[in-house]
Amino acid sequence: MVSLKTSHLDIAYEDRLIVEDLNISIPEGKITALVGANGSGKSTVLKTMARILQPQSGSVLLNGKSIHKQSTREVAKQLAILPQNPTAPEGLTVYELVSYGRFPHQKGFGGLKSQDRNIVDWAIEATRMGEFSDRALEQLSGGQRQRAWIAMALAQETDILFLDEPTTFLDMAHQLEVLQLLEELNATSNRTIVMVVHDLNHAARYAHYMIAIKQGQAVATGTPEEVVTSPVLRDVFGIEADIVTDPRSGVPLCLPYELYRAASEGKVRKGKNDGPEEASPKVVSFL
């Protein structure tokens, strides 16, 4: 297994400090979800932990060594990342895309060896993309394309898989398809998965561990039951919500009904009648 944590991590864009003194650890063999409002820094944290961004100070420790001081090939053998909205050249087939995942393991300019082809075939089958192996990516549905990219990441044979909002722009059925695939991969191969998730209820349903980020700070960490609470939702998302237990999975469900700012200021709305004013629940977007 591979250990991953941050130590006093500062991340900045030019002169603007986005993340300050971040100290988090990623549980091995679990699914971890990074959640937070838009602009909270969660994708920035993910990209820095995956060695895409360089920190201003502090470090990301991969097996006790700074990830930014290790070679690209060395890191690529230990972790894979699926960025948000990845793109590929037109006409590239699923098999060709997945085969790119073997690049960190190849030497010189030789093509795929027998072992590489076996792993590519396994990754395609594991993501249930066998029937689309020879099809161009642009001919696939959104969910199928996302599964193809996940297959490429699997072909790297890494212990850690990073995903930046893997369900963005997918409809509900394809969102569940991707999340259930990740859940299955974690269960069958004990793979550590770290993902930025936009939907808080999806995070609670599919992650074992959650990290709630606000203004570059981890303000709550732990199981879904420890993170999806009324105080955390007020602090991180600025909402009032009912927390109920999912009758199927037993995890907490968030039912937002009001902005916390409006509730805390005692704002009310008049109804059609002239009776006493009272706040009427309203479902609002909280991400």
From TrEMBL:
A GO BP term, please?
A: iron ion transport
**Biased-composition ranges for Basic and acidic residues?**
266-275
In this chain the ABC transporter domain maps to: 4-240
Membrane topology of this protein? Peripheral membrane protein
This protein's record includes keyword Nucleotide-binding: yes
Q: Which domain of life is it from?
A: Bacteria
Q: Which SUPFAM superfamilies match?
A: P-loop containing nucleoside triphosphate hydrolases (SSF52540)
| Pfam families in alphabetical order | ABC_tran
Gene3D superfamilies this protein is in?
A: P-loop containing nucleotide triphosphate hydrolases
Instruction: Identify the GO cellular component terms for this protein.
Output: plasma membrane
Keyword set, alphabetical order: ATP-binding, Cell membrane, Ion transport, Iron, Iron transport, Membrane, Nucleotide-binding, Transport
InterPro entries recorded: AAA+_ATPase, ABC_transporter-like_ATP-bd, ABC_transporter-like_CS, P-loop_NTPase, Siderophore_ABC-ATPase
Annotated region described as Disordered, given as residue ranges: 266-287
Compartment annotation: Cell membrane
This entry's Gene Ontology molecular function terms read:
ATP binding; ATP hydrolysis activity
What name does the UniProt record give this protein? ABC transporter ATP-binding protein
What organism does this protein naturally occur in?
A: Paenibacillus mellifer
